[in-house]
Amino acid sequence: xxxxxxxYVPRRTRAPCEAAHSARCAxxxxxxxxxxxxxxxxxxxxxxVILAIVALVVLLRAVL
Amino acid sequence: MEAASxxxxxxxxxxxxxxxxxxxxxxxxxxxxxxxxxxxxxMVFGAFFTAYFFIRVASGDPWPAPGTDLPVQVAxxxxxxxxxSSFTVHWAGSAIKHGNRFALKAAIFTTFLLGCTFLxxxxxxxxxxxxxxxxxxQQTVFYSLTGLHGAHVFIGLLLLLFVxxxxxxxxxxPTEHTGVEVPGIYWHFVDIMWIVVYTTxxxx
Lengths: 64, 204
Known about the structure:
The structure holds two protein chains of two kinds. Chain A is mainly alpha-helical. Chain A has three helices and no strands.
């Protein structure tokens, strides 16, 4: 899948160097629909966030 | 007649069929399709979660309903199985990108088996849980949410079966692996949805 079409960074803000732009774009947005790699990373982030929420809720239930 | 066909084969062809579709979006078409599909799926799950939260929070009904017991440990093991399957499908994608066909076959077949195990445990849970969807609102929304997810797992298993068959037939290569990539994205989505369902329905 070509990177150009998949990137959501507005065209007018793009750096002249395409390689630099690609790195910046990849840093800017984690798009789980762009590739399986990013979907997998999104899954790991989601697990981490949900574990944090569960821990917070359990802690609040114990305290309150 | 023969000259015409020779000219056609030589590349002297004219366009037949409908004109190419107008593309008003800068987003790549397959990506846009997947984006709209996932958004629609999130909205479907959102409707079911709305019903769940209404029953649990707005109406103030106890969860789970009195007299019912949810098998949290069994579902937890099932969650671990499904999360493991996401790791194996990621392994499959990485394997074909590096040209490792044996690892692709092993990983995708393992993913398929793990998915089948998840669905089998889910059906077994339904058979032994001790309540039916018509017993009350809580029971209905429990079966609706887990059943909706189970239907998505079933569709994912069909996709994985196609990928498994194709990989054993020698399809895919380091440059041509969209057929592994897209079911992988779908499988991760199904996995994330299950983690949300398990957390809200079973744990919290």
